Amino acid sequence: MYRLTRLAGTTLEGLMESATDAQPSSPTLLALGGGLIGPPPSGFAHDLSRTILGYGESVFRAGREAFKRWEPFELGWVRVANSPMIVAGELVAVEAHTAFVWSVNFSRITEAVDTSVRFGFLYTTTRTHVEEGQERFVIEYDVASGRVSYLIEAVSRPRHFLARIAYPYSRAVQHRFARDSHRRMLRSVLETAKPE
Predict the structure, then answer these.
(1) Which of 21, 103, 133, 163 has the fewest CB atoms found within 10 Å of its own CB?
(2) How far is CA 112 from CA 4, 16, 97, 136, 139, in A?
(3) Is position 81 within any domain?
């Protein structure tokens, strides 16, 4: 859904209510634990990025808490509008301001993990999303090295005709989101992780 103005509270609530039953609508392209499942189908782009957030259990804990607050999406021009729990089945409403228009896109969390060394989720777009595909966001703690990393992996193609027409721009927006999300996580961890 594209609009020239940001959605007001009641409009956003109505949109959320209408999307409550929206189901995942994409081929299975990724697995939360292993990532890409075979070559992407024709027309789908594959993106993978990883950042080292730091070292130690406190960094992992800080990253997990930042995730629970949806900070990887709090970018100024992007935000999660509904703050769901990070568990399978939850609907995620991502609001974005790009190319002078506002949009709200809905995805459904299809897998989630929360252990002492891994935290994250995989979500799948619904038919109310301008793109079609899957994306996973994972924080991993390598106990042997102490390294904590943040990974984003996506396989997608444009669904909405405007996204197809402006495909190079859509790709640039996807890359911008990944860069900004990694920076946001680094800043959050630096601000909150306690030295060990």
Answers:
(1) 21
(2) 34, 22, 27, 9, 12
(3) yes
